[in-house]
Amino acid sequence: MATANQRGQHASERGAGTGPEAGDLQALAVQLRRINGEINRLVQSFAGTHGLHATDVQALAAILDAPRPMTPGRLREHLGLTSGAVTACVDRLERAGHVRRVRESADRRVVHLHYVPDARAAARTYFRPLADAAAAARARFDDAELAVVLRFLAAMNEELGLVRSEDR
């Protein structure tokens, strides 16, 4: 596996340091597709290694990233699946030891989905190369540049969320 310095060196040898023109929408689209493809490759590999579907890994990410405890209903909305498909997904995740269902004591009808700590540690280990790549890429930018990148990614997610909402 290449170190962060080796990856940076290879990128600069390919001319990646110069980058596209700021207004080049085609170049931006290409880079977004490439990053999506690379992340999907890692997700598919993780899913296959753990006997899961790619949607199951998306569910795990949604549970992990949720600002408040995730419920099956919110997971269904987030993933755009039917309630039956979400139930099957959560069943697979629970059988594989990645999540557990917890009934809240105040209202026993409410079920929260929790990422099992041991499974979270296994995922963190598996996705360590992704974290290392992100750290190596981050090191090439100063804080002001990263703030712009973060603003762009947040805006992109917001816009894509609107597109998803309009499709329903």
What is the gist of this entry?
The protein is built from 8 helices and 2 strands. It is mostly helical.
What does this structure look like?
The protein has 168 residues and is mainly alpha-helical. It is 68% helix and 6% strand. Strands 1-2 form a two-stranded antiparallel ribbon. The longest helix has 25 residues, at 25-49. The protein is globular, with a radius of gyration of 19 Å.
Distance from N terminus to C terminus (CA atoms, Å) equals: 42 Å
What is the CA-based Rg, rounded? 19 Å
Question: Low-confidence parts lasting 5 or more residues at pLDDT below 50?
Answer: 1-17
**Which sequence of strands runs across the widest sheet?**
1-2
Order of SSEs:
HHHHHEEHHH
Number of beta strands = 2
Q: Helical element count?
A: 8
Structural class: mainly alpha
Shape: globular
Rounded average pLDDT: 85
Strand content: 5-15%
The amount of helix comes to: 55-70%
Largest sheet: 2 strands, antiparallel
